[in-house]
């Protein structure tokens, strides 16, 4: 479903601020893989997602989605392949529009616009059913402006919007990091349910080592622009945080000194 071949990226090349972020990264995801991505600040995690989404173009290498070469496609043309949820709950939704209007925007993504009625009754019924599955009490608040929702409700709605068209790849960029632990756990439960429901191929960035171990069938760890660990199946299920720290030190040759990861 996703192939990344020899992708490298350096920001501000040839200047005093030159910053090599990715070094010949190779990654293959099968259809239905749920891969958690972990690593410290500056490891290259978000840059990798940005290159997959088209927000950043690589210096060299290839990005293929379902065998289609999308390496140089602009972000708006690549959007039909992808769903994405960002760290900030305010991104991904239109705050001054209602819940139903946001869902309608997601449902119409990639379609030609016309002069027909905006949202018909059958659509609202469908949205109510989808919202009931979130178990957040939103099914009776279709006309509520999204800016009045809590951060967790808004992020869950963003997830629903991102998966509504069943994208080929779902990208989750620390999408629970801005939420309190209880709300974050609820959003992760919603995430797991939607991924399983639609069998979505997913990349999820997290700083939380327990989340990286618990969720998904596969985990990769990045360090200084490279993938240094790739663990799946039974090996992943047996991991503990202590095992993960030990493997990081063994492969990288250094101790993990990222406070955010250690404290999580």
What gap, in angstroms, lies between the N and C termini? 31 Å
Mean pLDDT: 88
CATH-derived architecture: 3-Layer(aba) Sandwich
Give the helix tally: 10
CATH superfamily: P-loop containing nucleotide triphosphate hydrolases
Give the spatial strand order of the biggest sheet: 6-7-8-3-9-10
Low-confidence stretches: none
> Helix content range of the residues, please?
25-40%
Determine Rg (CA atoms, Å): 19 Å
Using the alpha-carbon principal axes, give the shape.
globular
Question: Multimeric state of these chains?
Answer: single chain
Description:
The chain has 264 residues and is an alpha/beta fold. The chain has a single domain (2-94, 167-263), classed as P-loop containing nucleotide triphosphate hydrolases (Rossmann fold). Helices cover 36% and strands 23% of the residues. The protein contains ten helices and ten strands. It has helices at residues 45-53, 75-78, 99-107, 121-134, 151-163, 181-198, 209-214, 233-237, 241-252, 259-263, and strands at 2-11, 19-29, 34-38, 60-65, 68-69, 82-85, 169-173, 201-205, 218-223, 226-232. The strands form two sheets. Strands 6-7-8-3-9-10 form a six-stranded mixed β-sheet, sandwiched between helices. Strands 2-1-4-5 form a four-stranded antiparallel β-sheet, covered by helices on one side. Strand 4 and strand 5 (68-69) form a beta hairpin. Helix 3 runs parallel beside helix 5 and helix 5 (151-163) runs parallel beside helix 6. The mean pLDDT is 88.
């Amino acid at each position: 479903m996703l192939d990344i071949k020899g992708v490298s990226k350096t920001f501000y090349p040839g200047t005093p601020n030159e910053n090599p972020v990715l070094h010949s990264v190779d990654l293959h995801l099968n259809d239905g893989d749920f891969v958690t991505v972990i690593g410290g600040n500056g490891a290259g995690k978000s840059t990798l997602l940005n290159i997959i989404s088209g927000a950043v173009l690589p210096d060299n290498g290839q990005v293929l989605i379902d065998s289609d070469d999308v390496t140089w496609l602009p972000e708006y043309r690549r959007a039909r392949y992808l769903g994405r949820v960002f760290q900030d709950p305010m991104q991904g939704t239109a705050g001054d529009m209602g819940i139903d209007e946001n869902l309608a925007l997601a449902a119409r993504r990639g379609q030609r616009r016309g002069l027909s009625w905006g949202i018909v009754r059958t659509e609202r019924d469908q949205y109510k059913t989808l919202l009931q599955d979130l178990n957040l009490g939103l099914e009776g608040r279709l006309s509520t402006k999204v800016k009045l929702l809590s951060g967790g409700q808004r992020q869950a709605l963003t997830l629903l919007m991102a998966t509504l068209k069943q994208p080929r790849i779902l990208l989750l960029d620390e999408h629970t990091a801005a939420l309190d632990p209880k709300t974050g756990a609820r959003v992760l439960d919603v995430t797991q349910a939607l991924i399983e429901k639609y069998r979505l191929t997913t990349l999820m960035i997290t700083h939380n080592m327990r989340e990286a171990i618990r969720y998904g069938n596969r985990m990769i760890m990045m360090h200084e622009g490279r993938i240094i660990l790739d663990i799946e199946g039974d090996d992943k299920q047996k991991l503990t945080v202590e095992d993960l720290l030990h493997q990081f030190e063994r492969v990288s040759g250094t101790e993990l000194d990222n406070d955010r990861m250690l404290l999580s």
